Amino acid sequence: IPPLVAVPTTAGTGADVSQFAVITDTGRGLKATLIGKTLVPDISLTDPCLLVTMPDWLAATTGLDALTHGVEAYVSRAASFLTDEHALSAVTLVGEHLARSVHDPLDTGARLGMARASLSAGLAFTNAILGAAHAISHQVGGLLDLPHGMVNAVLLPHVVRFNAEVTPARFRALAGALGVPGAPRLADDEVGDALAGAIAGLATSIGAPRRLHDIGVLPSHLGQLSRQTLYDACLTTNPRDVSEAD
User: Fold this and answer.
1) What angle do CA 68, 72, 76 make, to 5 degrees?
2) Which of 69, 118, 218, 231 maximizes the CB count within 10 A of its CB?
3) Is 241 exposed, middle or buried (0-12, 13-18, 19+ CB in 10 A)?
4) Which residues pair with 34 in a beta bridge?
5) What is the pLDDT of residues 167-210, one digit of tens each?
6) Residues in Cβ contact with 141 at an 8 Å cutoff, skipping those fewer than 6 apart
């Protein structure tokens, strides 16, 4: 493709440094993920000053997308020491700066923190890929034309609980990065609920919905969404095998 210079104006997608592009297939009602090194921009320029004009809802949803990138990249089957540092940094930065950036748009420190979070998360997931939250979110967003980060915010706590049953140690580290009290001492059967609760609490504090019902998903949609999720590229690196029944 021609030379590409990326200048992000949101703090979440990581498209400015990633090898992914997502397109909406309106005929099938889904979002399809394209993957290729040629999609990585040649130059990326991150300027936090460009983030101050985002409306609250966009700052919230893109920030929650960055959080999801950090969480899913850290527990991915393809994670490594190269991606772990970026993933944990992203989670920590989102926890420290997202709510402030939403409630005080001109807080330059918070905008800088979220710009760094988005960049770190992008560097993590472009190499470690993602997981079930994104695999499902692509289908929900494609079907109902919803903001991607909003859907992630609804799904991520449930995916965390599901995946933490098989890799609790990785989720304990994430709980520490997000500032969950007593994270290092959490028992294996407690860590999923603790981290999921912290994520849900953060999302609620900035106005994100909590349930699929709240964003228009109906019981009649679940079969189609479940079947399509199985073909999403992000599911291949989820730390736990997922079936249609799951």
Assistant:
1) 170
2) 69
3) exposed
4) 21
5) 999 999 999 999 999 999 999 999 999 999 999 999 999 999 99
6) 24, 31, 147, 148, 151
